[in-house]
Write a structure and sequence with these properties.
The structure is a homodimer.
Chain A (H helix, E strand, L loop, with lengths): L1 E6 L5 E3 L14 E6 L33 E6 L2 E7 L9 H14 L4 E5 L3 H13 L2 E7 L4 H9 L3 E5 L2 H11 L4 E3 L6 H7 L1 H10 L5 E5 L4 H15 L8 E7 L4 H7 L21 H10 L3 E5 L1 H12 L7 H15 L9 E5 L14
Parallel strand pairs in A: 5-13, 6-7, 6-9, 7-8, 10-11, 10-13, 11-12
Antiparallel strand pairs in A: 1-2, 1-3, 4-5
Helix pairs in contact in A: 1-2, 1-5, 2-3, 5-7, 6-7, 10-11
Chain lengths: ~350, ~350
Amino acid sequence: MRVWYRCSRCGYTVEASSWLWRCPRCGNPLDLVIDGLKLTLSERRGLWRFSSVIPAKPLISLGEGFTPLVNADFLGRNVYLKLEYLNPTGSFKDRGSAVAVSRALELGVKAVVEDSSGNAGISVAAYAAAAGVKARIYVPKDAPEGKKNLIRSLGAELIEVQSRDEASRMAIESVGPGEAYIGHAWNPWFLQGTKTLAYELLDQLGHVPDAVVLPVSAGTLLLGLWIGFNELLNLGLINRVPRLYAVQAQGFASLYERMHGNYIREPTKLADALRVYNPPRIEQMVNAIRESNGDALVITDDELLQSWKSLLRRGFIIEPSSAIALSGYMKLLSNNHIDKDEETVIVLTGSGLKYIDIMSKI
Amino acid sequence: MRVWYRCSRCGYTVEASSWLWRCPRCGNPLDLVIDGLKLTLSERRGLWRFSSVIPAKPLISLGEGFTPLVNADFLGRNVYLKLEYLNPTGSFKDRGSAVAVSRALELGVKAVVEDSSGNAGISVAAYAAAAGVKARIYVPKDAPEGKKNLIRSLGAELIEVQSRDEASRMAIESVGPGEAYIGHAWNPWFLQGTKTLAYELLDQLGHVPDAVVLPVSAGTLLLGLWIGFNELLNLGLINRVPRLYAVQAQGFASLYERMHGNYIREPTKLADALRVYNPPRIEQMVNAIRESNGDALVITDDELLQSWKSLLRRGFIIEPSSAIALSGYMKLLSNNHIDKDEETVIVLTGSGLKYIDIMSKI
């Protein structure tokens, strides 16, 4: 397998033998291009079952991937729920971290740097701990206290700053020699981890669903699915890509706004994991939605709260941000964007166990 | 498959066609005896993969079982960590709840009743929610606030009482017509769920390990393993039962004390999930330890804290009670009860995500 970085904007191409997270020529996000992709399933049960299509050595595992896919009825319609919140640190981010941190370790990195509103920081901190490398995590000070506690407990250095944007800027500026900026919103290795969700859905179902509905902020899961499904298409293992429906939170609807115009509402108070203003890969996100014949939606906090309660009352212990996908599905049903007979997967991305201190309020 | 209740003490036997949780003749715990046990693996990936040996219809699933088994080095020795904390509600209890609540639903029960210091209550509440039956959970008021919040959020009725013992007594007294007392420490159906861990270890490893080290309070996991390994032995699928090592917390060392005499120390402050004074199945627990050539150990809070930190610093987000198993393993190594070349599985039973509000203190 030979792997290249290719700039998503200017086309600059270079062999992926060192750590890059954006184009050295124009500063835009990089993609990874893999020569000679071939799928051979390994006997392992987690994400590394798909090792043959992941361009990194399987150096670290905390048990990520192979999350349950369960059936549930909503409004009389049967859907699949993909329980990504049962990943090792409680979010789908572990797919990206397992691959990105493994690759960083392979390249001899001594410390990783990340900015995050919580889940990505926890995930990178845990995988850095497993890898035996240092982690420095920049978070906005209004991130949930529990998430910040956990990042520290995992042995990472936690740096609190004023805002999500400042976290990003300061993380990038701080990166020194021997250190790697993970930056999940930028990082092309991270997407090589999240793409395994597409492979796993095919593995679990035996085919691909008609539609996938998922929460979207920086787009790492959306783009992972897009990459994965397209690889499967090119490998001749599927004959169509499922429609991808991106569900966003009020106040952080950049993708929706790019596609449908302004959506004025105050920033979400509930969906803290979806607070991203300027996703660097927005062009690619728009493309994935359009090319898959999907759509972008925005959900209000009132709608989200109903879905969160509804999922908890069915035994699914998810974080509020994840519930937004169910709200999105309900809206897509009522707008006839998804037909009642179509097979749909709703991705539940993050664990509610990180929120039990605030659950008394609902 | 024909299934019988048999009293562990007086031998009273009756077909298991209604809900019983203790012997109607002498009040002691009941076992389930299965006629014609035969193992056929199903295509499903979770606990119900072992449906053929579970005497209950697979009515409910939240994605329990099939938890990761990962390798890690401690003191230069390689062990397997079985990540039971990645079960749907964050503890191994989900194996028991999935089976017991499925069976209760099959028998037409309208509400389930449980007493718990936290994890079992969360688990039963979630499975009752999934089953669409009511749940009433009695907990001691000193149980962690977050765990109590979560039980309420899952739609259960939470009743706080003075102590763990009072929770038990009041739960039992409260059970009315059409209601089933789950009582995981008593319930024989619950053990039919936890026994799947033995089947799963064989399935994942291809053989059984030399030793299994696990936290023990009411003994539901210990006895599940004992039942499961013995069934596998009787089925001719393995030729020995692994040595079972039960690790207990200071102040709640009933099993250790039965085997080795008094152990005087103040009750644990850290291992809240292990606070059980009088496990009803203590005789069976002693038998499982002795017959398997294992042992019981007690770990102090100081030792436990070290192991908890050590596991967190390796990326394993577990609750303090679970870390006790690693402390136990260290002690067994240093006492030469486990040889450095022996294959050992350490069971990590509960999720640390339920504790992120207190993590700032460590």
